[in-house]
């Protein structure tokens, strides 16, 4: 079976029973996802938490009523009480965990990036296909209401043929992390990977063909000599002629900022905002609006939407809305951007 050929999705649970989910990773995002599954996703039940730090697993499991807390991933994968897993461990471990979970017959939701090499992406896709399990990747912006509405407008031909696209991610500042603890190329593999998927999502049916990137350490210039990069701009050309720009910064002092724009022959759509609500205060000192400081606040609805879609795919025995192939495409852009920074030249993508 080819990597792109769809396999029947394995039935993990009767329609009348909840999908029993374990989270692998009890950090910030793992805790967020686990709480959403436990409290907000219909037809789902959180049954286990795994984390190498036992206290973290126990604390999260106790808070959410999960019966199992363990430091062993094997305890989760070998359990007959687990139908699916959320993989929110460090990025470089994602592929091996996907492969192991698929081999154990567990449906998989994996945070981005699914892999950091194309070979590993292919390995994850093949494992899921062979096992007949749902494999969904955590590109949450597809489920944010504004981004979903933008895609609907594009599908309805309201924008016409896309000409120019833009997607940006600006993390809330001030930047206080230790650059030495941030893996090299994180800005492409873990930050801009969202924007690369967004550009493909908002240019449906088109294939990225050429990438050029520039990056620097503008937030922490003192760390540049170590390979740290915290600011980047990437241009992506598509086979339908559209030209796209993705940009990222690790420090926006005004808050977390995620936006997108598509300009076409028939109009334009924009999506996203850094505002925590749509309230604006007008007073003697002018206008004021509150901004979000965490992705889990700004994109809460999107996180709920993607996990609800994952459970829905399992229950309906259908493929995931966001597939391993989608993750591979975004990764191919990220890896081309890295090569472009290394060489100073544009990089053509292989077919």
From TrEMBL:
Keywords: Oxidoreductase
KW Oxidoreductase (keyword) present: yes
One MF term in the entry's GO annotations: nucleotide binding
Sequence ranges assigned to domain GFO/IDH/MocA-like oxidoreductase in this UniProt record: 147-269
Xref: InterPro entries: Gfo/Idh/MocA-like_OxRdtase_N, GFO_IDH_MocA-like_dom, NAD(P)-bd_dom_sf
SUPFAM superfamilies in UniProt: Glyceraldehyde-3-phosphate dehydrogenase-like, C-terminal domain, NAD(P)-binding Rossmann-fold domains
Limits of the Gfo/Idh/MocA-like oxidoreductase N-terminal domain: 19-139
Stated family: Belongs to the Gfo/Idh/MocA family.
Protein name: Myo-inositol 2-dehydrogenase / D-chiro-inositol 1-dehydrogenase
Organism: Rhodococcus koreensis
């Amino acid at each position: 079976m080819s990597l792109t050929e769809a396999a029947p999705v394995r039935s993990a649970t009767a329609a009348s029973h909840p999908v029993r989910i374990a989270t692998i990773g009890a950090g910030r995002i793992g805790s967020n996802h686990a709480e959403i599954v436990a409290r907000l996703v219909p037809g789902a039940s959180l049954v286990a938490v795994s984390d190498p730090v036992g206290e973290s697993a126990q604390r999260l499991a106790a808070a959410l009523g999960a019966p199992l807390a363990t430091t062993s991933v094997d305890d989760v994968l070998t359990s007959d009480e687990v139908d699916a897993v959320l993989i929110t461990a460090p990025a470089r471990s994602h592929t091996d965990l996907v492969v192991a979970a698929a081999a154990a017959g567990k449906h998989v939701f994996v945070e981005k990036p699914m892999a950091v090499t194309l070979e590993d992406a292919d390995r994850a896709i093949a494992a899921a296909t062979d096992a007949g399990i749902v494999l969904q990747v955590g590109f949450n912006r597809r489920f944010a209401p504004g981004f979903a509405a933008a895609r609907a407008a594009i599908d309805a031909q309201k924008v016409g043929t896309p000409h120019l696209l833009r997607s940006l991610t600006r993390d809330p500042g001030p930047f206080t992390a230790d650059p030495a603890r941030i893996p090299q190329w994180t800005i492409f593999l873990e930050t801009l990977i969202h924007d690369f998927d967004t550009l493909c999502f908002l240019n449906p049916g088109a294939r990225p063909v050429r990438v050029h990137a520039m990056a620097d350490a503008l937030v922490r210039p003192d760390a540049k000599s170590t390979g740290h990069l915290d600011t980047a701009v990437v241009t992506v050309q598509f086979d339908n002629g559209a030209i796209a720009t993705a940009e990222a910064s690790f420090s926006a002092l005004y808050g977390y900022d995620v936006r997108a724009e598509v300009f076409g022959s028939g109009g334009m759509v924009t999506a996203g905002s850094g505002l925590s609500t749509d309230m604006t205060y007008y007073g003697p000192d002018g206008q004021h609006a509150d901004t979000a400081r965490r992705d889990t606040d700004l994109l809460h609805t999107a996180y709920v939407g993607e996990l609800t879609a994952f459970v829905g795919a399992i229950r309906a025995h259908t493929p995931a809305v966001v597939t391993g192939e989608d993750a591979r495409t975004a990764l191919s852009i990220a890896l081309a951007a890295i090569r472009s920074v290394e060489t100073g030249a544009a990089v053509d993508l292989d077919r």
